[in-house]
Amino acid sequence: MEVVVYTKETCSLCEKAIDLLEELKKEYRFTYTLVDIYQDDALLEKYQIMIPVVEINGEEVDFGIISAEKIRKRLLLK
Question: What is the pTM assigned to this prediction?
Fold first, then answer.
């Protein structure tokens, strides 16, 4: 399962999203990759006011204040 978190430096919501994913890793088997939107102009334009954005298997699942329930549902679908 491929989980990507679009983020930026000094982002408290991003830190909360990462903490949530770390907790969910105790229940589900997955890894995640952090992508800094400031390293790619297209990503910056697309996500600048939405971050963090959690993408699972290529699908944007949640953004902003990340919901554990939304992430759980997508992880269960595999």
Answer: 0.93
